[in-house]
Amino acid sequence: MLELVEGWWKEQQGGGTKPSTYDSYRSTMRRLVTFLGHDDPGRVTTGDVIAFKDHRRAELNPRTGKPISAKTIKDNDLAGLRSIFGWAVDNRRMPANPAAGVTIKVKSKPKLLEGEFTDTEAKALLTAAWHLQSGPREFPTTFAAKRWTPRTG
Fold first, then answer.
1. Could you tell me the residue range of the domain that residue 137 belongs to?
2. Residue 68: what are its φ and ψ, rounded to 5°?
3. What is the pTM of this model?
4. Mind giving me the DSSP string for 26-37?
5. What is the pLDDT of residues 61-85, one digit of tens each?
6. N or C: which end of the chain has fewer CB within 10 A?
7. Is residue 100 domain-resident?
8. Does a structural domain hold residue 49?
C-alpha cells in the first residue's frame, strides 16, 4: 500500500498538490498498514476502512491528549485513503476502492461575524429590537429572547 502512495505522489508532483498533503496521506497509509498488520492493497475491504475509521476515532492526539477529531478523520484520513485507492483503481492496481463512500459525520461550527457592527448596522439592529411587539399570549421571557435574536424577513 505504501507503494501506491509513492505512485500517486509521482503523478501529483507539479500538479499543485502540496508536499504536506503527501506527508499526511503517507502517514495515514502507514497507520492503516499498522492497524491491519499487512501491506497488501488487494486484501483491504470497506469493512477494514470502517474499522480503521472507528479505531482512529478512539485514538488520542499525542499533542493534545484529546480524541482525534471527526474533521481530521474525514478531511485527512478518509480523503487520503479515497484518493490513493481511487488512483490505484484508475491505474489498474486495484479492482475497487475500499474507501469509496466511507465517511464520518462532522458537526459544523457556527459561523461568526468578524469585527464590529458598523454604525448603520447597530442602529438597524437596535431599532428593530426596540419596535418588536409581543405576540398575543406570549410569555415575557419568550418575548425578551426573541427581541435579541437575529431574524430574517
1. 113-153
2. -60, 135
3. 0.68
4. HHHHHHHHHHHT
5. 888 999 999 999 999 999 999 999 9
6. C
7. no
8. yes
